[in-house]
Design a protein that fits this description.
Oligomer: heterodimer
Largest interface: A-B, 17 and 13 residues
Radius of gyration of chain B: 16 Å
Number of helices of chain A: 4
Helix content of chain A: 40-55%
Order of helices and strands of chain A: HHEEEHH
Strand content of chain B: 15-25%
CATH superfamily of chain B: Bacterial phosphonate metabolism protein PhnH
CATH topology of chain B: Rossmann fold
Largest sheet of chain A: 3 strands, antiparallel
Structural class of chain B: alpha/beta
Distance between the termini of chain B: 59 Å
CATH class of chain B: Alpha Beta
Shape of chain A: globular
Number of domains of chain B: 1
Distance between the termini of chain A: 58 Å
Strand content of chain A: 25-35%
Strand order of the largest sheet of chain B: 1-8-7-4-3-2
Shape of chain B: globular
Strand order of the largest sheet of chain A: 1-2-3
Order of helices and strands of chain B: HEHEHEEEEHEEE
Number of strands of chain B: 9
Structural class of chain A: alpha+beta
Radius of gyration of chain A: 20 Å
Number of strands of chain A: 3
CATH architecture of chain B: 3-Layer(aba) Sandwich
Chain lengths: ~150, ~200
């Protein structure tokens, strides 16, 4: 897998994982018959430690544990699809994993991109925009005037 | 950009399968030389054997390093172990917590494997060894914890070399390695505490 392909895949896996569960179910459901797939692992829930560079020196810091559901599927031709989603959402994880597998196949890539990933990307952008608009309303800008004694 | 993969599923019921296997292995190590029935994972990638795969999937995790003895050290088996257990695969048998070998002849030198230290005898390796069956070949006499008097055990697969090494292994007790022999439908434990007489 080249770097570009890797980035593309990271991109769509992120979109699928952050998607609204109902929206994902509707979009995947609207595709009609999808290829058969086996569950290689899961969907299963567990805890992962979320770490961030929150220390003053940029050292890794254990922020806390969160619930994650993961799933790995294999479609008929042997393509693997993985998904990790937040919370206990087995159906979400399975749909996301299936979409990931299909996106790697040339026969399905364009269709899934146009009918699942693009709408989800727009929804995510809209969600972020709404969130920003809401917090913008109460934003306070801090600024410091040049103080006389510095001159 | 299709990726072709040959990854196959693990236990049908992950929790149940791992627990049953763990129970069987525990039973086998508690009664050395007695075959304990164990359902293997038939879908494991060749040349991995079903019971060997079941034992590996229930015993390994991300904290246990594993050495795969050739011919097991191939990409499909590595991927299988890495995906289902998350165990780091090492290239030196002497660094591994678990050593998996298909047969007696593939086995690395038993005395090179981690035997633990006087303070931590538990920091030793466990050998999972594939075997084609029990009850054939020259019997050896086992005695020690878990055996009331003595017990006869035989397997045509195991060479004199194996038994020589196994006896040396026992003389190091409480250090040494534990061996789990994985047959077609059962497992047999040979812990370091078992004394072996030919």
């Amino acid at each position: 897998m080249t770097d570009v392909q890797l980035q593309d895949r990271q991109q769509w896996m992120g979109i699928l994982a952050r998607a609204n569960e109902t929206a994902l179910a509707q979009l995947v459901g609207s595709l009609g018959d999808l290829p058969e797939h086996d569950l290689l692992r899961g969907p299963e829930s567990g805890l992962v430690m979320v770490r961030g560079r929150a220390g003053g020196a940029g050292n890794a810091f254990n922020l806390g544990e969160m619930t994650v559901t993961r799933c790995t599927v294999r479609t008929g031709d042997g393509t693997l699809g993985h998904a990790y989603v937040s919370g206990r959402r087995p159906e979400h994880a399975e749909r996301a994993a299936l979409a990931d597998a299909l996106l790697q196949q040339e026969t399905h890539h364009t269709q899934i991109m146009e009918r699942v990933i693009d709408p989800l990307t727009q929804q995510e952008a809209a969600r972020r925009e709404a969130n920003r608009a809401e917090s913008d309303a109460t934003r306070v800008d801090f600024f410091t005037l040049v103080r006389g004694e510095d001159e | 950009m299709t990726l072709t993969n040959d990854l196959s599923p693990g236990f049908d019921e992950p929790v149940d399968g791992a627990q049953r296997t763990f129970r069987a292995v525990l039973e086998a190590l508690s009664r050395p030389g007695v075959p304990v029935p164990l359902a293997g994972i038939d879908s494991a990638p060749a040349p991995m054997k079903p019971t060997l795969a079941a034992a590996a999937l229930s015993l390994l995790d991300h904290e246990t390093s594993v050495y795969l003895a050739p011919p097991l050290a191939i990409e499909s088996v590595r991927r299988y172990i890495a995906f289902h257990t998350g165990a780091p695969i090492v290239s030196e048998p002497g660094e591994a917590d678990f050593v998996i070998a298909l047969a007696d002849r593939d086995m690395p030198d038993v005395l090179q494997l981690k035997a633990g230290t006087a303070e931590y005898p538990d920091a030793s390796a466990t050998l999972l060894l594939g075997i084609s069956g029990f009850g054939t070949g020259l019997p050896v006499r086992l005695s020690g914890p878990g055996i009331a008097d003595t017990r006869e055990f035989s397997s045509g697969d195991l060479t004199d070399d194996f038994w020589t090494h196994a006896r040396k292994n026992h003389t190091r007790f409480p250090l040494g390695i534990d061996v789990i022999l994985c047959g077609p439908e059962s497992v047999v434990g040979l812990p370091r505490s078992t004394s072996i007489a030919v």
